[in-house]
Recover the amino acids of this structure.
């Protein structure tokens, strides 16, 4: 099956399971270059469970639905990194912003989302316990600058 792409980013294939939770039904990959020049390559494997962008329902009109295409690609990568703790939180947030840039999400929106992640994302970062980390690490990997992590 040929994957769907938005600009240069492959869109993940997923299905809803319970409430706002979704399961990835095919392996998914994304890559990019961070502002500091580091390259990243992320693989998330089939079976990973994620909830998309963490946007309060009251803000959906302004920011969009948590599973909105094409942002769902950035949200999936970010959910996997936060769950796996594969890199530090600042790098995770920078990767989210870079994927949004590749998706051509307008500057203002991606800037607001990035700043929001930096301000309030800590609660989500610290909410993942050892079982979450183990599950996420068994369902993905990230490479940054030829350094392999969580394989």
């Amino acid at each position: 099956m040929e994957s769907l792409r938005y600009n240069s980013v492959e869109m993940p294939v997923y299905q809803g399971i319970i409430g706002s939770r979704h399961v990835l039904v095919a392996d998914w990959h994304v890559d990019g270059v961070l502002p500091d020049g580091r390259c990243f390559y992320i693989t998330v494997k089939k079976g990973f469970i994620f909830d998309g962008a963490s946007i309060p329902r009251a803000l959906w009109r302004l920011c969009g639905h948590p599973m909105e295409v094409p942002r769902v690609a950035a949200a999936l990568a970010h959910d996997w990194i936060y769950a796996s703790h594969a890199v530090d939180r600042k790098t995770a947030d920078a990767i989210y912003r870079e994927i949004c840039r590749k998706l051509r999400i307008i500057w203002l929106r991606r800037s607001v989302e990035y700043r929001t992640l930096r301000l309030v994302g800590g609660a989500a970062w610290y909410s993942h316990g050892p079982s979450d980390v183990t599950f996420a690490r068994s369902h993905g990997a990230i490479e940054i600058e030829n350094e392999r992590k969580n394989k």
Remarks:
- The radius of gyration is 14 Å.
- The mean pLDDT is 86.
- The CA atoms of residues 18 and 51 lie 10 Å apart.
